[in-house]
Write a structure and sequence with these properties.
Blueprint lengths: L1 H26 L12 E3 L6 E3 L6 E2 L2 E5 L6 E5 L3 H12 L12 H12 L5
Length: 121
């Protein structure tokens, strides 16, 4: 009985903190892409907007994270919604997609081979 008097308030407090966190995250500025709980960052080298990783070491107000585009490691703070929107517009264009690249014949065949790997035959 004594354990329940301790455990129940702890569980309720944890749920309340989780609910407050969810509400705050939903009220933040919206961008075209979701950046998750740790927020988004803009790579200082290539300008690519990406979600900060949970496993990246936290250095106070910044994380030491690896850019998925260029592969460089750097200290990146959490970017604001305006910064992320500008980086998305600069990198992806207005359509929200990567710029179309012309593939050579060999690259097209290689891509078709990779995509056919998971087809049922």
């Amino acid at each position: 009985m004594v354990a329940l008097k301790i455990v129940i308030p702890v569980i309720l407090l944890t749920l309340l903190i989780g609910l407050i966190t969810i509400i705050i995250e939903r009220k933040r500025g919206k961008t075209r892409r979701g950046y998750g709980m740790f927020g988004g960052a803009v790579c200082p080298q290539c300008g690519y907007p990406y979600a900060r990783h949970w496993w990246a070491p936290n250095l106070g107000t910044v994380k030491y994270d690896r850019c998925p585009n260029c592969g460089k490691w750097s200290r990146v703070p959490r970017a604001s919604a305006d910064e992320l929107a500008r980086a998305e517009a600069a990198f992806f264009g207005e359509e929200g997609e990567l710029p179309a690249q012309e593939l050579s014949e060999e690259e097209k065949l290689r891509k078709r081979l990779e995509e056919s790997r998971y087809e049922d035959v």
